[in-house]
Each structure stands twice: as C-alpha cells, then as structure tokens.
Amino acid sequence: MNLNGLNWDDLRIFLAVARSESLSKAGRILNIDHSTVGRRISALEFTLATPVFEHDRSGYRLNAQGREMLTMVEAMEANVLALADALDDPSSGPTGRVRIATMEGIGACQGTCRLSHAAKGCLSVACEAIVTTDSRSGLRVTAPIGVQSRVHPDQRAGLRSRAWTYTS
User: Fold this and answer.
1) Half-sphere exposure of 113 (CA within 13 A, CB side)
2) Which residues of 110-122 are buried (b: 16+ CB within 10 A; e: fewer)?
3) Which of 36, 97, 132, 167 could disulfide-link to 126, CB 3.0 to 4.6 Å?
4) Could you give phi then psi for residue 61, rounded to 5 degrees?
5) Span between the terminal Cα atoms of the chain, in Å
6) For residue 164, what are the β-bridge partners?
7) What is the pLDDT of residues 4-16, one digit of tens each?
8) Which helix (DSSP H) or strand (DSSP E) does residue 121 occupy?
C-alpha cells in the first residue's frame, strides 16, 4: 500500500459513495460526473491495494475494510471541518482600529465607501474616517494614514489630472 498516493479529494468521494451507496448520487452531491466518481474510487482502491466496496446492481456497499476505513475518514473529515471553522473565526483575524484622515471632498465622495468595503469581513477591526479641511498638516496630526488629492500637470498632453497621495 502506497499512502503517498492518497489525497483528500479521493477520500471525500469515498465518503460520498459510502453515505449514498451510489456513484450517481455521490456525483450529484459532489457536483461531478458519476463516471469520474467511479474512476476515483477505482484509483483509491488501487492505491490502497484493497477493495473497500462491494457493488452490484443495487449499489455500492462498504465491505469490512471499507467500514473500518469509514470511521477513520469521518474523523479526518471532522478535523478538516474544525480547522475550517477555526480559520473562518473572525476573532482569529485582524483586530484593532484603523484611523484614516482625509480632506473633506475625498472623504465624502470616495473614502467612506472604500473604507467600509475594505473593512467588510473584518468584524474585529474598527474603521474611523477623520475628515478635515486642512490639506497638509491636519492629515498627519489626526491619523497615521492620510489620503489627499493633488493636481499636477500631465507632461504628455498638457492636461491637468488628479493623483491620489497616501501618506503614513
């Protein structure tokens, strides 16, 4: 038996077939073709060097080795699901407060929408936008991050355009 050939996708397919007792039902559950399910089960049994299912016209049933394997693979699945829950836990992500100072026009037009979009999904991050009319010193004094707009000549076309400056 070569355990280096095992992969989680094959074990997920094994679980689906064991639970549904059918390649086509397992395929529908996993959103893959039933022929792919059959090939993956055959590949799994080849890798394990032993059959884990008995199959006939009524479907697929686990044999003794398959039932023993089912217990272990379900434990693996529980651990993978617990890991996913732990990684999705908002308390394990970024925390703290973000303060951004910006000029009045930028804060009203751009800042609040982009700030709320950036904070989406970060439940433990408090975002604070400080809007000021002082375009120079006020940005640096009130917050560690400042956003301001400046007008400069465009060298190529002789037109004036806007550039965003981020200071920290």
Assistant:
1) 5
2) ebeeebeeeeeee
3) 97
4) -125, 145
5) 58
6) 149
7) 778 889 999 999 9
8) none
| Cα dihedral 40→46→51→54 (10° resolution) | 40
Query: Which of 71, 62, 32 has the alpha carbon at shortest distance from 40?
Result: 32
pLDDT tens for each residue of 24-70: 999 999 999 999 999 999 999 999 999 999 999 889 999 999 999 99
Where does residue 134 rank: exposed (0-12), middle (13-18), buried (19+ CB within 10 A)?
middle
Beta strand residue intervals within the chain, DSSP E: 53-56, 59-62, 96-103, 125-132, 145-153, 160-167
CA–chain centroid gap for 77, Å, is: 18
